[in-house]
Design a protein that fits this description.
single chain, Cobalt-precorrin-4 Transmethylase, domain 1, Rossmann fold, 3 domains, five-stranded parallel beta sheet, 10 helices, flat
Amino acid sequence: MTKPPLTILLAAPRGFCAGVVRAIDIVERALALYGAPVYVRHEIVHNKFVVDDLKSKGAIFVKELDEIPDGDWPVVFSAHGVPKSVPAAATARHLFQIDATCPLVTKVHMEAQRHHAEGLDIILIGHKGHPEVIGTMGQLPPGAVTLIDTVADAEALDVRDPARLAFVTQTTLSVDDTKDVIAVLQRRFPLIKGPFKEDICYATTNRQEAVKAIADRIELLLVVGAPNSSNSKRLVEVGVKNGTPRGILVQRASELDWSTLQGLTTIGLTAGASAPELLVNEVIDAFRAHYDVTVEKVTLRDENISFKLPRELRDVPASA
């Protein structure tokens, strides 16, 4: 039986960013150097496949440090960053700390601390409850940071002194939505200080721009990523806002509902910054079982960014 033709526009850049590569490499190298177990506080990145793979190699994931038995065990802090109270607690317990916080998140932490040291009140644009937001707010004393999310939040914001304000942002937000929120803050508080360079990371921006480049050419956008991944969810939103009739977020090809995927001729495919390429290929192979697939690569730009590992891990081979 002849399969119907389907063109898959494969967006690039997609998938792993430099911060995710670094975080995974940190856990793998810690295992190679110190042996199992290596404890990891929270998911190292938001991807079940990655987490399960590291578990199989000897990593143990915990929600909080009190789940780690006494001893000088290695403990890795996730790429999203942690409040200052977490390394302080690890020090008190004599745990061996390895910080996998993405350097671009650390940049936001440093900005917030600098503005606070200058006596400014800090506005953080981000999503309540996200680990990165919790980590950023936890760099400063309680009450020093006010969290907002939407344009409506910015319009309703009541501040102590409009002349002494600064803002920072979560690194994985919608570029366009964040611009709108910042525009309101700058209109209402003309003296507000912002970052020297925008906080939304290069990978978030590039992946959203790549989706925009194909959005009006496709009937469906498929994003490979986790449901708790902010940057992956934003990719779905960006596609729909820029002309795609429908966007779907899936973790694996096994989640595809083929009853809703009939009669397609052109779809877009991308992946969040925590999703490995093999999961993208898995989705393409799944479509080949139902369609005569042609893959068209649409590359917006190339990425060649990498981040150094922590000093204590740099001379360790990636795998034992």
